[in-house]
Every structure is written in C-alpha cells, then in structure tokens.
Design a protein that fits this description.
This protein has 16 helices and 18 strands. The chain has 434 residues and is an alpha/beta fold. It folds into two domains: 197 residues, Roll (Urease, subunit C, domain 1); 236 residues, TIM Barrel. The strands form four sheets. Strands 1, 2, 3, 4, 5, 16, 17 and 18 form an eight-stranded mixed beta sheet that branches. Strands 11-12-13-14-15 form a five-stranded parallel beta sheet. Helix 8 packs antiparallel against helix 9, helix 12 packs across helix 13 and helix 13 packs across helix 14. The chain starts with 7 loop residues before the first helix and ends with a helix. The relative contact order is 0.16.
C-alpha cells in the first residue's frame, strides 16, 4: 500500500506522540508548576544562567524568566530549586530495546526522556508501550524506524529486511514509512544503489535517513544525500588508505564478524591527516550530517582486555583513541554530533550508557556544553523536532533536575534527582530498581 505524501506527517506525529497519548489515565498537573531559583542550562550550548524561574503549564513550558520577575500565580505549585540545575531531557538517538522494555524506563529515570531505536520491528515495542500505559507515565517518547534495510547475508537477520536490489530497497523503505517510521536506517551490506534508493524515499517523505556504513564509503553515501551516520566506525573505510580499506571491506563481505577486530585495526593505522581523511572532511563541511559516534560501545582501556578481542591490546587502545580523535575532527569540520548510548556498553551500568557516551564526547575534546547540546538540541534537530531539546517557552516540558552542574564537570550529568516528561514528574525511587 502506498501512503499519500500529505498523510506522512500525520503518521510521524502519531508515532512520536504515542508514548504519551496511549496512556489516557495519565494527567499533567492541573496547577502550573514553578521551578524557582534554578541554574539553567537551556540546551542550546549557551552559557548557564543563574537564578532563573521556569513555569510549566500542562505539558508545555510557559515561561522562562529571572526569579522574582512578576508575581507568582496563587494556584502555582512552587518548587524552590536553589543550588540545582535544570536542563532539557536527554535524547538518546541509538537505543536498542533488546527484548528488555524495562531498560527504557531505567534510562528515563536517568534523564532520557526521548529515544530513537535505529532499526527494529515495531512490534518489539509493544511491551514498553504497555508499561507506559500501566504505569501512567508520560514517556519516554519513542521514535521508531522499523526494521533496518540491509543487503544479502545481513549482519542482524532478526532485525532487518533484506533488499537484493535498488527496487527492493525502495519498496522496503516505502513499507517502513507506511507503518509510521520517523526515520529509516540503512545497514552496511546494502549496496550503494540500494542505499541511494532508500535515501530518495526518505527525502520524498521528508524524514531523515541514517546509516551504519562500515563497508560502504561514507563519502559516497553522504554525497548521495544521507542525513545522518550511526557509529564513528562507519567512517573507517573513508579515512584508511584505499588498499587497506578494500582489504577490510572484503574481509567483512566474507564474514560479518571480521569487523569486530578489523575496525580497531583499521582505525589504529588510519592517518587522520592524510588525503583520504581530508576528502571526508571536505564533504562533512559541505553536507553537515548528523553523526552519532556511539563511542561507549567501542570503548577500550589500557589494562582491560576487550571482550571477544583477538588483537594486541595496544592496537585496540590505539584504534579507540583514533575513534575519539575522528569524533572531534568531524565536529570541527561541520559534523553535527549527537548522543547515542547503545543500551549496553562495556564501562557503564544498567541504564547508564547515555551518561557514559556524554562523558566520552567530552573526553574526545568537545566542551561540556557542546556535549550537552549534542544530547539535547542537536538530537532534537536530527529528529526534526522543534518542540524538544531546549528549555524555552512553548517547548514540551521534558526536563531534568540535577544536584550539581555538568557544564563545570561533565560527570555531574549523573547527579539527576528529578525527571519530568510531558509535564509529569517521574517516580525515580520506584523505577531505579528496574
């Protein structure tokens, strides 16, 4: 079935609002909520502002003004948060539900009020939707993409549809759109012609197209119009010398598992000041794609062997350091960095992968405010949402309260003490046990 283009924005809106609209018994406060005397990080990358008053009415931010400006409404629920920080809820652009719907709630109490699953059958989210209904929660907001589109011998058969040519790729993309996809993800075994066909469908329906590339040259796919890239490792064959890149490509074509060691070796030997990388940087400057590095899932540390790794540990460490350097270099050349936690990563506890990713963005060289913007306003822009990711009048009331300031020390992103989604406070004490 082909869906008329005029109807697609409606489908996308339905998919995005589903997390709050399918819980009819949940209600925002009937009284305005005033968060007074806060230190505000608004999500735009601007410097924090002190002694600010944020007023919420229903599920929207009604006012952001200096504390003490005007008189408070007599019926307002006033919460004095002097000494605390308020910032937008975090947006995780790479969340895998992995048959564990409670993980999304665990991330919610850590401040992740919106997420995008980058490629999974929509039916996998029914359990999470039921939890949100049963618990009368306002979120998390879910952006679903449907199964990712891969080529023959797919890397993850259970999560993908296989397209053998460009026409099949186009049809698979249209099917995802018809089922309400708010983005579509290309996987790395899909040939370039098929990737171009999927990109064309996304552009026709005005939704973003993202990709895990690996053996596709990122430069080619970006030139074809790709909007976003998942994983910093997707740039491996774009920065390596041509012969080395082709060797890696053939190894992965023969065996998907070859990339698990191969990407570290590829990055360890790559020249980020070489001609291949310079070509990539030129394209990043022109195209300005969103890039979701997911560094936390690749993280290795000296003295801690990589699980399942077969390389010299020094190669693993060198490869990961190059991944961080490329994240910063890409950012400096126009890539719009976003945050993706990847759900389960080596150096983070349950539900804490987004925090670890934000910390690694700073470790890579972004400032704390740049990393926080990546996790808020830039993530919202990647999703083409102008009502999320910023604390400002008219925006949706998705926000977090922190006991300490992550703009001074990024590790304080872990000091979340309150979470609001869709104008409703989340019972953190209850869900921290999940």
């Amino acid at each position: 079935m082909r869906v008329p283009r005029w109807f697609v924005p409606t489908l996308i809106a339905i998919a995005w609002s589903f997390a709050s609209s399918f819980a009819p018994n949940a209600r925002q406060s009937a009284r305005p909520i005033v968060l007074d005397h806060v230190r505000l990080i608004d999500g735009t990358g601007a410097a924090p502002r002190d002694s600010v008053r944020v007023t919420i009415e229903g599920n929207r931010i009604a006012a952001v003004e200096p504390a003490g400006a005007g008189s408070l409404r007599s019926n307002a629920d006033v919460i004095d948060l002097a000494g605390h920080v308020v910032m937008p809820g975090l947006i995780d652009l790479h969340f895998h539900i992995e048959r564990d719907p409670k993980l999304a709630i665990r991330q919610l109490v850590n401040g992740v009020t919106s997420f995008r699953d980058p490629g999974q059958w929509n039916e996998r989210f029914e359990g999470l939707k039921q939890i949100v209904t049963d618990e009368h929660l306002g979120g998390p907001r879910m952006a679903l993409a449907g199964p990712h589109i891969d080529g023959e011998h797919p890397a993850y058969p259970a999560d993908s549809v296989v397209a053998r040519d460009a026409d099949e790729a186009r049809r698979a993309a249209e099917r995802n759109v018809a089922e309400g996809a708010s983005a579509i993800k290309i996987y790395f075994r899909l040939p370039l012609a098929g990737a171009a066909a999927v990109i064309g469908v996304c552009h026709a329906h005005n939704i973003p197209c993202t990709a895990h590339l690996e053996i596709l040259d990122a430069r080619d796919v970006l030139e074809a119009g790709l909007d976003a890239v998942e994983h910093i490792t997707s740039f491996g064959t774009a920065i390596a010398e041509r012969e080395q890149a082709e060797k890696y490509r053939q190894q992965v074509l023969a065996d998907n598992a070859a990339r698990r060691d191969g990407r570290y070796a590829l990055f360890a030997d790559a020249r980020l000041d070489g001609s291949e990388a310079e070509r990539l940087f030129g394209i990043l400057e022109r195209r300005r794609p969103f890039v979701n590095p997911t560094l936390a899932v690749f993280e290795v540390r000296a003295g801690v062997p990589r699980e399942g790794g077969h390389l010299d540990p020094a190669v693993d460490v060198r490869g990961f350091e190059a991944m961080k350097r490329l994240t910063l270099d890409g950012f400096r050349h126009g890539a719009r960095i976003t945050m993706g936690g990847h759900s389960s990563v080596p150096f983070a506890d349950r539900g804490e992968a987004p925090w670890r990713e934000i910390e690694l963005l700073v470790e890579s060289g972004l400032t704390p405010l740049e990393a926080l913007a990546a996790a808020t306003s830039v993530g919202a822009a990647s999703l083409r949402r102008d009502d999320l990711g910023v604390i400002a009048p008219g925006k949706l009331a998705d926000l977090i309260v922190l006991d300490r300031d992550p703009s001074i020390d990024i590790h304080q992103i872990r000091s979340v003490s309150r979470v609001m989604v869709d104008g409703r406070w989340v019972d953190r004490a209850r869900y921290l046990r999940w």
